[in-house]
């Protein structure tokens, strides 16, 4: 699936994002750079509403739901979990989806 297809598929399913209190969602990595291979996953950066209480189980449920939605394995991360040496580059290349 191409970058634009992934973005549109996620945007058309805002109810899913609302269910998990997603404040912001962006795609980054090989899909954004046009370097994705058939075996590539999709790197997604997610921020949750400040008042949301998202635990590990909810996080994994969102990861799986996004993967099911786009039909490709998803690597889900939050900005706080990004390695400091990579964070600026990731934030620069990230494409805002929702």
Order of helices and strands: HHEHEHEHE
Strand order of the biggest β-sheet = 3-2-1-4
Number of strands: 4
Give helix % range: 40-55%
Largest sheet: 4 strands, mixed
How many structural domains in the coordinates? 1
| Beta-strand share of residues | 15-25%
Mean pLDDT comes to 96
Q: Tell me the radius of gyration.
A: 13 Å
Second-tier CATH architecture: 2-Layer Sandwich
The CATH superfamily label reads Beta Polymerase, domain 2
User: Pairing-aware structural class of the strands and helices?
Assistant: alpha+beta
Report the span from N to C terminus.
18 Å
The CATH first-level class comes to: Alpha Beta
CATH topology: Beta Polymerase, domain 2
Shape: globular
Task: Offer a quick outline of the entry.
The chain is α+β, with helices and mostly antiparallel strands. The chain has a single domain (3-96), classed as Beta Polymerase, domain 2 (2-Layer Sandwich), CATH 3.30.460.10. It has 5 helices and 4 strands.
What does this entry look like structurally?
The chain is α+β, with helices and mostly antiparallel strands and 98 residues long. The protein has one domain: Beta Polymerase, domain 2. Helix content is 45%, strand content 20%. It contains five helices and four strands, in the order ααβαβαβαβ. 19% of the residues are buried. The mean pLDDT is 96.
């Amino acid at each position: 699936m191409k970058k634009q297809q992934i973005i549109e598929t996620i945007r058309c399913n805002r109810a899913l994002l609302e269910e998990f209190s997603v404040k912001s969602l962006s795609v980054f990595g090989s899909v954004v750079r046009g370097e994705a291979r058939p075996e590539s996953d999709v790197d997604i950066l997610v921020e949750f509403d400040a008042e949301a209480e998202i635990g590990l189980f909810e996080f994994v449920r969102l990861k799986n739901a996004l993967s099911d939605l786009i039909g490709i394995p998803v690597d889900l991360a939050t900005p706080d979990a990004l390695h400091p040496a990579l964070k600026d580059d990731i934030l620069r290349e990230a494409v805002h989806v929702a």
